[in-house]
Write the structure tokens for this entry.
Amino acid sequence: MRSGDTGALIDHWTSAGLITPEQARLLRADVPAPPRRAGLVAEGLGYLGGALVAVASGLVAGEFWDELGRVGRPAVVGSVALLLAVAGAVVPARRGSAARLRAVLWAGACAALLGALLLTEELTGWSAEGTLALAATGMLVCAAAFWALFPHPLQHVTAYAAGVLLGAALTGLLPHPGVLPGLTVWALGLAWGLAAWGGVVRPGPLGRWLGAVVMTGGAVAVAGVGWGSVLAVATVAALVAAAVAIRDTVLLIVAAAGSLLILPAVVGLWFPGMVSAALALLVTGMVLVAAAVLLARRRPRSPAAGADRQAGPRRPALTAAAVVVAATALVVVLAGT
């Protein structure tokens, strides 16, 4: 019901003698204020202005790309990052549209900083892998600082994405990386999901979902080799089991999407031939359908019970995440050198 309709009802009740004027005043004070359209307009203008700044900078840089030189190119993109960061800082730290606008501006600033640092390859003379590691480090520092200042979900996503990119870039610096960057990404996804499950990373559901998506991406990257195919199938199975255990539909969707990406590579590696491939896909599909039915048929619990079900013990979860990262780092270093 709109606030105007509520006010009319309060006036009617007061005139009819059903409530006292004092009660009417208390009721009006309790009616939520209507959303401010000005905030939505400001948010839209901010998005449009940021897009125009990015497009204009790209046009100018493209027109004078050769003239800008090795120093001017990253300087132009870096100035865009600085402009977006300052614009986000002056946006009021309120909820709603203002919070979304600040989050988008600061995420754009981190992305622009990544681009600026990537353009320093000619200036530093580093390899592409080294430049990527430098750029990912800069983006991670930027995103982590913004996340600490303003714990918005978009800052969470930006900081985590920068960390995953840095892990993959550092692994790529090894003499023989192969598919090891995918293993690093997988481990970072698993560790982040465990930390979110234990309440170390907040909000917990977002952390679990991000970890599952990144974990699945890493599994897809390694699914083409023997040991990687086993890891990829185990990843999908673990996500399905976790989704059923904590009643998380998003995890089940991630597992289903991951199976569509992983199974073709795994089936082609281990089950050559049309019939065996079809049987493998049939069995996997039946398992996913059974998991979905089981998840749908389980009785709903109270909100408090559901929260307890989805949260794990903090210290064991953090310990498990640390063990996963340390063990994977040791394997990656030994296998890549």
